[in-house]
Amino acid sequence: HHMNSRITDFSAQKATLKAVLLEGIHPSAVDVLRQGGYTNIVTHTKALMGDELLAALDGAHFVGVRSRTQLTAAILEAAPQLAAIGCFCIGTNQVDLKTAMRLGIPVFNAPFSNTRSVAELVLAQVIMLMRGIPEKNAILHRGGWVKSAAHSYEVRGKTLGIIGYGHIGTQIGVLAEQLGMRVVFRDIAAKLPLGNAREVNNLDELLAISDVGTLHVPETPQTHQLMGAKELAAMKPGSHLINASRGTVVDIEALCAVLESRHLQGAAIDVFPVEPQGNDGAFVSSLTKFDNVILTPHIGGSTSEAQVNIGSEVAAKLVRYGNNGSTTSAVNFPEVALPEHTGRSRLLHIHKNVPGVLAHVNERLSAASINIAAQYLSTFEDVGYVVIDVDSAASEAALDELNGVPGTIRCRILY
Q1: Is 120 a catalytic residue?
Q2: Minimal CA–CA distance to 133: which of 41, 240, 23?
Q3: Is 224 designated active site?
């Protein structure tokens, strides 16, 4: 058995290459794939598992999933023709990224598409919390009436502390400044401040001066319970906490304690350490007893606009990889940004990242008198990715040569 069974010739039968989209991905994805020349598209409304998932992936070159479908090592190993994976969401922990990398399968996601949706919700929560609206609303629903200006403030002139100044954090900073808020931020990397936002030296300083603190960090070992009892105690008395990032970032019991003692005036929480598996599941949390807490069911990025954007953003990345080999923004793969290729054949060679592979590639092509018009190489962890443009007449010979290179994982031609 030839070790390199993962060979896909994309262009010869692009129209027959199969794309499988699971979990009711927005039709915008289908439109983008069709425009890119991929017309054999199968859609499923739900996540699949086990034998059903394997059956659905049979013959699939592209697969699109959201957060429910688990693409495990075993599943990936059983789908030899799979060339790329699209996660139509932000997270990618439902895919075994290491195995996908080892098999030469880049994984793409949608890190930008719901940025604005989350930012708008957080902005609304800032205003609601500063006015004490959640509690007032709850009291009226129970037939009470507490009309008072106590603990009720305009946001203009107040300080918003942004923890994690990435795509979403920066957007919130810009929107908050439009309302006349002062914006301070803290990030583990050096970030360029937008507008008048100011970076502070450490988390404690940010917490001490912020009227509202909002979390926009990824889920990593460093962010696990980033807001624990100590950090919550360091927050400005009477301030508010918003978490629309990841459920593991806030210690919920510690948050309950500072709400109980009224050290914090309120909070808005969209994500939880344990969330129900589906819409029929029961939500259980010690936060439900607080009238001054806005609870939302992990919908920070769930808007019609975001679904449309996610569909087209991820599908466009799959099309670019399929049609010209670009892997820009792949999460588990060497990133190569490529110009459009015209009049030549492009060879995509994915190999183990060991010394000497590129030398082997060039020796073999040179020995076969194949002229290299252009070459792009990038490596990532265990994998190397080299893209070579050659004259079309030499493409088949070049493919044979490349398949003979030791360390080859897979190779394909674009015409």
Answers
A1: no
A2: 240
A3: no
Q: Residue 250 contacts by C-beta under 8 Å, 6 or more apart in sequence?
A: 215, 225, 226, 227, 241, 243, 269
Look up 298 and say whether it is catalytic: yes
Q: Euclidean distance between the first and final Cα of the chain, in Å?
A: 27
- Give the Cβ contact number of residue 153 at 10 Å: 16
Quote the radius of gyration of the chain (alpha carbons, Å): 25
Determine which one of 6, 216, 246, 349 is catalytic: 246
The three-point CA angle 255-256-259 to 5° equals: 90
Which of the residues 298, 341, 360, 364 is marked catalytic? 298
Which tens digits make up the pLDDT trace of 359-374? 999 999 999 999 999 9
Residues 209-255: tens digit of each pLDDT: 999 999 999 989 999 999 999 999 999 999 999 999 999 999 999 99
Q: Which residues is 212 bridged to in the sheet?
A: 160, 240
- The answer to whether the CB of 151 falls within 8 A of the CB of 265 is yes
Q: If you search the block for the tokens 């859609």, which residue do you land on? A: 43
